[in-house]
Amino acid sequence: MSCRRGALIVLEGVDKAGKTTQCKKLVQALKESGRQAEMMRFPDRTTKIGQLISAYLEKKSNLEDHTVHLLFSANRWELVPLMKQKLEQGISLVVDRYAFSGVAFTSAKPGFSLDWCMNPDVGLPKPDLVLFLQLHPTEAAQRGEFGTERYEVGDFQKIVMQKFELLMKDPSLNWQVIDAAKSIEDLHAEIKTHSETAITVAENQPIGELWK
Ligand code: ADP
Ligand code: 2DT
Fold first, then answer.
1. What is the largest CA-CA distance in the chain?
2. For the Thymidylate kinase-like domain, which residue ranges apply (predicted)?
3. Is the dihedral of CA 27, 28, 29, 30 positive or negative?
């Protein structure tokens, strides 16, 4: 590697935990401190695969459960060449949801094992840091009503949360659980500190492979 690579930083958490708010603030802060950083989000609804997913989430189309799981994974894989290129150029990527949402949401459906759900994402670029924004469902409810998209249902989100907890037990990943009930600024400060450490550590390491 000719230059120091960027870090892959993922923000995960239940709906309304503040992921999007914090991703934007983190990218802005990293840039202001002279680092190269860009935001990405999954699903990326701009690609052809992303448009199929978007229509499904908006309930404009129905897709078979295994099929949609594989489309979410394919939506990550189609962006891997670009992600690697950016990381190798020294750009840190701040990503709003990743394979962990993929596994947590599908395995919350009846008949889906964690293992089956993880398989298609094995080998994706491994995050250097996964920030989990932890928020109690009653706190999340105070941040406004759910929208009308598929999965925006309280009971389903509770099962999703349990699946995230299983995934967080994996010691091969750098999980940091953050109390998302804090103020936007307090959360930002905490997230920035973790991210700066991860960026420094990642600089001298090759990009890892997820769940391998
Ligand atoms: P997510 O991307 O996790 O769904 P958002 O960043 O879109 O969450 O935030 C959901 C809502 O909660 C928005 O209205 C946002 O302004 C608000 N919000 C975000 N972070 C906080 C916070 N720390 N405290 C209170 N409200 C917040
Ligand atoms: P937002 O665009 O509001 O984050 O909602 N999801 C996401 C999956 O089921 N599988 C995945 O792989 C990913 C990345 C979570 C997107 C919705 O799609 C769900 C909420």
1. 49
2. 11-191
3. positive
Nearest of 3, 6, 10, 41 to residue 127 by alpha carbon: 10
In order, the DSSP letters of 111-128 are: T--HHHHHGGGTTSBPPS
**Residues pairing with 131 in the sheet:** 11, 176
Comparing CA positions, the residue from 15, 28, 3, 27 lying closest to residue 90 is 3
Q: Atom 20 in ligand 2: which residue has the minimum CA distance?
A: 151
Q: For 62-102, how does the pLDDT look when each residue is reduced to its tens digit (9 = 90+)?
A: 999 999 999 999 999 999 999 999 999 999 999 999 999 99
Amino acid symbol at 62 = N
- The band of 2, judged by pLDDT with boundaries at 50, 70 and 90, is low
Reading the block at residue 23, the tokens are: 């991703």
